[in-house]
Amino acid sequence: MKKLAIFGKILFIVFTFYLSAKSQDSLSSPYDEKLVQDYLKKNGTKSLVIGVIKDGVESVKGYGKINTWGKKNTTPDGNTLFEIGSITKVFTTLLLADLVKKDSIQLDEPIMNLLPKNDYVYSESIKNISVLNLASHTSGFPRVTNRSVNGIFWSRVFLPIGLYDSILGAMNPYRNYDTTKLFKDLRDVKLKNEIGSKFSYSNFGMTVLGYILTNKSKMTFGSLLKTTILDTLKMKHTYVDLPKSEYNNFADGHNKLGLKTPRWTFKEEMGGAGTITSSVNDLMKFLEVNLKNTNEYLHSLLDDCQTTQFKISERRTIGLAWIKSNSENTNNKEIIWHNGGTGGFRSFFGFNKETKTGIVILSNSANDVDKLAINILKVLMEKKVNSTL
Fold first, then answer.
1. How far is it, in rounded angstroms, from Cα 120 to Cα 136?
2. Which of the 8 DSSP states describes residue 383?
3. Residues 183-207: b if buried by 16+ CB within 10 A, e if exposed
4. Percent of the chain with pLDDT over 90
5. How far is CA 237 from the centre of its chain?
6. φ/ψ (deg, to 5) at 85
7. 261 found inside a domain
8. Is the confidence at residue 31, as pLDDT, over 90?
9. 264 in a domain, yes or no?
10. 221-240 mean pLDDT
11. Mind giving me the DSSP string for 19-75?
12. H/E stretch holding 281
């Protein structure tokens, strides 16, 4: 009888383990794995991590192999750190919404009111640009300036785009861009479009906005980000300046040729356009506050940020940095999103409020993940939720 009892316990343990493993596999793969494998076959692609949420049920899974300072040829996971590039911009506008809520800044306020006056000369063309224009990419500012990318912007005119991107990634282009160069650009800048007339994506404009926020709050961008958002959401592994203690968790970036790229670094006050390094696990917390209202105050600010401010096209609008799109590719459901890219990284963050479905993808290659993200979202939006997604 004792042997039978022991055998029964063993069977129970094995069966329980099987169910646990089966549940984990289902949790880790709620979408067609072929979509991911097709992406991984692209030249230069090394790895990526995908996080999804559907009606509060979450899944995070890593693919491919990464090298870090302390780990070689390992599979990335939800704690692996990647540069998130321009997804930084939706954090910048959330900081803006906080200051607007506190009456420190007004959206319709001219940026001239918020820039230092003494010893600075500004282009006459910028005097009617508002804070809202910066946040909605309707300022007329160029995408970048020659000073802001280490003087290699001219090469885009003469070089194939792939080679230009490889050079840009290899040079860590924003590392020397500081307030001195920013103010020279504000003196010399020429607008591409009439203010408020057209959507024209501008890293320069978002950099100016980031500077305005730090100048108004008398805090560094990193400190403002930490106290307003990161501490509140317990995003403990999201950084403006990556600490050495996290080097072992940081995935090396790669360009489209598969060559390793350096980290992109920004001066502290210049980070509003693309400075953040984060993990999928941390960004899932940011996804939760968008979909699940895990913090009432930040959720209300995000609603403000995602309110339409400008119509880009028939099926696309913009709020404060957030893009809102609907098309046949998303079954005509509205996706609120932003993507990002630096020299060796690509990222996507997006969700549909109606179906409470969201996705985060971080990749350490320069191959875009937008199509992959939208295809997975399309599948998940139609999927019926269960306890294992």
1. 26
2. S
3. bebbeebeeeeebeeebbebbbbbb
4. 70
5. 14
6. 55, -130
7. yes
8. no
9. yes
10. 98
11. HHHHHHHHHH-SS-HHHHHHHHTSTT--EEEEEEEETTEEEEEEEE-B--SS--SB-
12. helix 280-291
Q: Is residue 10 part of a domain?
A: no
CB 223 within 8 A of CB 158: no
Q: Give 97-129 pLDDT, tens digit per residue.
A: 999 999 999 999 999 999 998 888 999 999 999
Task: Find, among 320, 312, 327, 222, the residue nearest to 267 by Cα.
Answer: 222
CATH number for position 366: 3.40.710.10
d(CA 88, CA 123): 27
Q: What residue type is assigned to position 382 of the chain?
A: E
Side by side, the strands of the sheet bearing 357-363 are: 57-64, 47-54, 357-363, 345-352, 335-342, 323-325, 316-318, 310-313
Cα–Cα distance, 194 to 230 (Å, whole number): 36
Residue with the bigger pLDDT between 161 and 216: it is: 216
**What per-residue confidence (pLDDT) applies to 20?**
33
Question: What does the alpha-carbon distance between residue 45 and residue 361 come to, in Å, rounded to a whole number?
Answer: 14
Beta strands in the chain (DSSP E): 47-54, 57-64, 81-83, 253-254, 260-261, 277-279, 310-313, 316-318, 323-325, 335-342, 345-352, 357-363
| Percentage of the chain modeled with pLDDT above 70 | 85
* Residue 240, domain extent: 30-382
Q: Is residue 8 part of a domain?
A: no
The whole-number average pLDDT for the span 331-347 is 95
Say how far residue 1 (Cα) sits from the centre of its chain: 61
Total number of domains in the chain: 1
Q: CA 144 to CA 231: how far, in whole Å?
A: 31
Nearest to 215 by CA among 120, 126, 85, 142: 120
159-164 long-range contacts, Cβ below 8 Å, gap at least 24?
A: 162/256
What angle do the packed helices 280-291 and 296-305 form, to 10 degrees? 80
Indicate the pTM of the whole model. 0.88
